Amino acid sequence: MAVVDVVNSKAEKVSQAELPDTIFNVAPRADVLHQVVRMQLAGRRAGSAAVKHRSDVIGSTRKLFRQKGTGRARRGNIKSPLLKGGGSVFGPDPRSYAFKVPKKVRKLALKMALSSKLAENSLLVIDRFDLEKIKTQDFVRILDALDLDNALIVTDTKDDTLELSSRNVPHVKVLRSEGLNVYDVLKYRHLVLLETAIKGIEGRLTA
């Protein structure tokens, strides 16, 4: 097991924590990480682009003029795609871009992402955030002490004080361990784990 230092809000070492090799010592594979990130981003796409087809256009179904004898091309009703204001022929319809990746692959990718942060010395374990009240200035002061400017913070339980204090700080995101995902781990430069969140991550990825 890898052993890392646990620091407090003043960046002072207070203890050490063990990180299981089954989660934090997995060799990364670009193809697996790419597949899972693509799945996450595809699921976020709205897929709401749409046009009105002939049946969706409101208009009369009366034949515009007689079939023969005018010298013009035959014409049906005013909703024809050939006329201004008519329906579209091959325009987009609402669709879902989502696709699924096997659960084992998703777990493996998350282990690889966590392992990469530890290998890059971009993983920090903190005992707790000393925030007595909701105050962004106090939160920023802690980030400065820890020398963090782009970080994903993972907690074990809901912490309104931390979440509300951090929501206006750019390039910082607070997640609970059950919401930990590959895209966010790779997106942020540093990964900050509350010491109590390690057990939750271990339980989730070894279940």
Please indicate the count of domains: 2
Note poorly predicted spans: none
The share of residues in extended strands comes to 15-25%
Largest sheet: 6 strands, mixed
- The assigned CATH architecture of the largest domain is 3-Layer(aba) Sandwich
What does this structure look like?
By secondary structure, this protein is α/β, with parallel strands linked by helices. The chain has two domains: 154 residues, Ribosomal Protein L4, Chain: A (3-Layer(aba) Sandwich), CATH 3.40.1370.10; 41 residues, no CATH class. It has seven helices and six strands; from the N terminus they run E-E-H-H-H-E-H-E-H-E-H-E-H. It has a six-stranded mixed sheet with strand order 2-1-3-6-4-5. The chain starts with a strand and ends with a helix.
Characteristic key phrases:
six-stranded mixed sheet, 2 domains, 7 helices, Ribosomal Protein L4, Chain: A, elongated
Describe the protein's topology.
Elements: E1 2-7, E2 13-19, H1 21-24, H2 30-44, H3 103-119, E3 123-126, H4 136-146, E4 151-155, H5 160-166, E5 172-176, H6 182-187, E6 190-194, H7 197-206
Parallel strand pairs: 1-3, 3-6, 4-5, 4-6
Antiparallel strand pairs: 1-2
